[in-house]
Amino acid sequence: MSAKKTAPDSLRNLKGIGQKTEEAFHRAGIMNLRDLIRYYPREYDSFEEPVPVGRCVADIKNAVVAKVTSRPVVRTFGKKSITILNLQDETGTLQVNWFHMPFLRNTIKIGVYYVFRGPVIAKGGRKIMEHPQLYTREEYMKLTGQMLPIYPLTAGLTNNMVRKAVTQLLEMQRTEEEILPDTVREEEGLCEINFARSQIHFPENSENLLIARNRLAFEEFFLFLLGVERLRAINDTTENHFPMREVWETEDVIASLPYKLTGAQQAVWGEIEKDLASKRLMNRLVQGDVGSGKTILAFLAMIMAYENGFQSALMVPTEVLAVQHYQAFTELLEKNGITDLCPVLLRGSCTAKEKREIYEQISSGKTRAIIGTHALIQEKVEYEKLGLVITDEQHRFGVKQREALAGKGYPPNVLVMSATPIPRTLAMILYGDLDISILNDMPAHRLPIKNCVVNTSYRDTAYRFMRKEVEAGHQVYVICPMVEPNEELSCENVTEYAQKLKNVFGSEIAVEALHGQMRPKEKQEIMDAFARGEIKILVSTTVIEVGVNVPNATVMMIENAERFGLAQLHQLRGRVGRGDAQSYCIFMQGDGKKETSERLDILNHSNDGFYIAEEDLKLRGPGDLFGVRQSGIALFQIADIYRDKDLLRRAGTAVKDLLELDPDLELPQNRALAKALQEYLSCQNDDIEDINNI
Ligand code: ADP
Ligand code: MG
């Protein structure tokens, strides 16, 4: 057998990584060494100076040093056991509990100092440390001051595996080429790339971490904005091959709607119509909070393109959303007697045969509108006359994807729609290549959603409330963070939760589970049944987060709300309050933490996405670097447009200055940068999270 040659960038070059481990890395999206070095920690565990017993603080992790003066006591309950040690010194008392570790009774030595490190809770006036790690003083001394990375993980991948792999990679001393020009680095006071890479993984101290993070965030913005500038240049110079005129049919469709367009919808439709009918290509971003009614604008634009003889494509991030748009669009066309537009639904889960047929219909021009997931741009779809491309929920759709579109044949008109609340000034930097429209009012007759933040003791009340709403003819969403039970994370999962609710509600109320790991067909059947009102309670992961529209649903209950970012919670909440009935959102807080309550309270008091993002940032403060990524914008790995808005502005200025001197990046000192930009723009799909699988 001939030995297979290992690619220089393969993970297999690291000691201890065989096929199985490699697969685990692949599942986390780490395909090679390049990805590994960019797989940044989620947070860090820092071993703080241990304190005496009386100084430990409830609700957080503490390291306490104390001399053990009595033997631990073991209590057993059936198969379970708990080992209890009471610590006391002149500063106070502390109870320490371990679960299922009775052997500790014999290992802990009386008269010896130990460091106990674990979370402390306050219970009935006493402080209890739960299941701490145990160190001798000497062991702990060695660890003090260190910050160890904690990585985001997937099944089969442990933190230790990633730590070891990254350590090795850093030790292999692969020196990476600097892509930021020296002048930019000097002016901005940014550290060198190899320092940044090592300090982001294993920071020597928190100052270094900050320096490293700053540099990496700046670089992300810098490359992104270079891409934006390039697109702007392309937009300004490309000819419009799809001249359109305004048509009556769109007016008829508007008149046929069961509602009147809001003032904002009318204004923005006016802008879109004018763009499409102008000599220049349209490149427009429509920003509007969840529920502001963006979809109809997309449909109108598609009908206008059709009436002018052009094809259009509508891209969305999930299959569930693609199907929903397809169905709504088909219905709208039927109602208006538009028969030969023949839209098709194209998605990743189509069989090869189905795809071939669809491609045929697209390339022959039989179909005039294509609705689908990002598969639309990923595959070799040949359009007959693609005059308009619309992307919905564009926060998952970055400059790379826009570039890919612009690069295909004659560039089409582009409309991007987003619910991400970005202040106009930031949007102008991030989307410098686009004109911006804002949908700033909500359809009339909408009652604001009523919110509450509760703890798990409220569940039964919540279930009674859900029953009442279902009996009144409405429907309910329940969101859980996980698909299946997980030993390491104690939070609710869709599979068990749906079963539990089936028991709670009995056979007369239909409860079903939905998550991204189901087969697409099964997923679809469930979504359809929910949309038809047959399923009353849908227990789901965040797979329904984006765009799903079932106006009859009036209750959204989110379990383990603490595990989601505020922007994401706001999106989830946007699934209700889409009809005329009063809607409710229940945030179920699974941890008892005060910070969480404060954070969730922001949502409790506002339904305004923009306000939420700003308040959230204030609460987190500048020190919290790696909290749950709040903005919901998956464009950047490490940078956060809210937290780093100054950095974003500075990167914007630096890009402009650089391009003024060297518009085509041809100077020798910018060669590495030009190459990096090309690479950045060519790996066009890697920042679209595969949210279909959550
Ligand atoms: P989003 O901006 O979140 O994509 P949608 O386009 O899905 O919002 O619209 C949300 C709901 O509001 C849909 O049921 C849609 O039919 C309805 N809708 C849209 N515009 C109006 C309007 N002007 N008046 C009343 N309902 C509307
Ligand atoms: Mg939408």
From TrEMBL:
Q: Which domain of life is it from?
A: Bacteria
Which residue intervals define the domain Helicase C-terminal in the entry?
458-618
Q: Which reaction(s) are listed as its catalytic activity?
A: ATP + H2O = ADP + phosphate + H(+); Couples ATP hydrolysis with the unwinding of duplex DNA by translocating in the 3'-5' direction
Among the GO biological process terms of this entry, one is: DNA repair
- Name the SMART domains for this protein: DEXDc, HELICc
Query: GO terms for molecular function, please?
Result: 3'-5' DNA helicase activity; ATP binding; ATP hydrolysis activity; DNA binding
Keywords for the protein's UniProt record, in alphabetical order? ATP-binding, DNA damage, DNA recombination, DNA repair, DNA-binding, Helicase, Hydrolase, Isomerase, Nucleotide-binding
| EC number from the UniProt entry | 5.6.2.4
Give every Helicase ATP-binding domain span. Answer: 275-439
Q: Which InterPro entries match?
A: ATP-dep_DNA_helicase_RecG, DEAD/DEAH_box_helicase_dom, Helicase_ATP-bd, Helicase_C-like, NA-bd_OB-fold, P-loop_NTPase, RecG/Mfd, RecG_dom3_C
Which family is this sequence assigned to?
Answer: Belongs to the helicase family. RecG subfamily.
Looking up NCBIfam families in the UniProt record yields: PRK10917.1-3, PRK10917.2-2, recG
Q: What role is this protein assigned? A: Plays a critical role in recombination and DNA repair. Helps process Holliday junction intermediates to mature products by catalyzing branch migration. Has replication fork regression activity, unwinds stalled or blocked replication forks to make a HJ that can be resolved. Has a DNA unwinding activity characteristic of a DNA helicase with 3'-5' polarity.
Q: What is this protein called?
A: ATP-dependent DNA helicase RecG
- Origin organism of this chain? Eubacterium cellulosolvens (strain ATCC 43171 / JCM 9499 / 6)
